[in-house]
Write a structure and sequence with these properties.
The structure is a homodimer. The first copy, chain A, is built from 7 helices and 3 strands, in the order αααβααββαα. By secondary structure, chain A is mostly helical. In chain A, α2 crosses α6 and α3 packs across α4. Chain A binds a DNA duplex through α2 and α5.
DNA sequence: CGGAGGTAGCTGCGCGAAGCAGCCACTTCC
DNA sequence: GGAAGTGGCTGCTTCGCGCAGCTACCTCCG
């Protein structure tokens, strides 16, 4: 096939962070998805385990808020994690609306394993960036994300640190 | 409500480019989507117009390749653009498989208008970054994206040829 | 010149992610 | 003790992306 420049991306797209981010996201989703598939996991499972590991047992609603996951998905994902023996789900005696979800030892093991796998993916992701820029790149992504999450910051002094 | 740190994101997610990118993408999609909705456009429409403007008339397949849009969507999007009078679609006399898509004057006008709107979105997006870092940010996104797009490595060989 | 293989346009389907609505049980606030 | 809010759960919808398959057509090669 003659090279007609068929795969040259219009600069009006190519130069836009919005386009780059969304394009990048589909590639990343694919990459991460493959890693999770190989382990029989899904993205949500890992997020929940990570939240449990870092903040300890929590209600499903709290987990959803922390991981930015909708309640409906938390129900399903926690159910699957429970079936796999990675978490325990028990009603909260102090508040009978709640289910307290707890990480099991096996859950911690799987979390650690998946963490290693995911770290590899991150390396693959940031490979083209010089090591010195990677940390900054992550930091920038975080700042931009935070900004979009709550666009009316104004004078809200005390951070939630 | 007591502040139990319910919205603190686990660092295992928060520190990962993969998570940040996908989260960011959903926010960006929402933002851009709102801008496009207000103009009765969709993302694809703009991409196609931009490609036509930059590279001139082209077949639908070439447009898809340039904008990273699947053929099936190109069909639909070009149809809508044609109905709106922003492009012309005519069979190529030299190759009757092809439809040559051409930007109309009105299409150019709409492209310019949407470009301005989108530029505002980019500003909103990169607002939290110091001006000096924005260009670098875009550049980094581009490099990472290019890297993921052609990762022909490792003897894994999902044979394509 | 005729068949093989590739390309273009088009239709249709499936997947993953996100989000909303509504229901019931229960807690909390007034 | 009533109203409002929260937590768990089920169900539905939307959107973006991508693949499979089909027909028409072009090109290459024997």
């Amino acid at each position: 096939m003659q090279n007609t420049g068929d795969d040259r991306v219009p600069t009006l797209l190519r130069s836009r962070p919005s386009w780059l981010v969304t394009q990048l996201a589909t590639q990343v989703t694919r990459l991460v998805g493959e890693a999770f598939d190989a382990a029989g996991f899904r993205r949500y499972h890992y997020a929940l385990l990570a939240a449990l590991d870092e903040f300890g047992p929590a209600s499903q609603a709290a987990l959803g808020r922390r991981c930015r996951i909708d309640r409906s998905y938390v129900v399903e994902a926690v159910g699957e994690l429970e079936a796999a023996g990675l978490v325990l789900r028990a009603p909260d005696p102090a508040d009978r609306r709640r289910n307290i979800v707890t990480l099991t030892g096996e859950g911690g093991t799987h979390l650690a394993a998946m963490t290693r796998t995911l770290d590899d993916v991150q390396d693959e992701l940031t490979a083209p960036l010089p090591a010195a820029e990677r940390e900054q790149f992550v930091h920038q992504l975080g700042r931009v994300l935070d900004h979009l999450r709550e666009p009316r910051v104004t004078g809200k002094g005390p951070e939630i640190s």
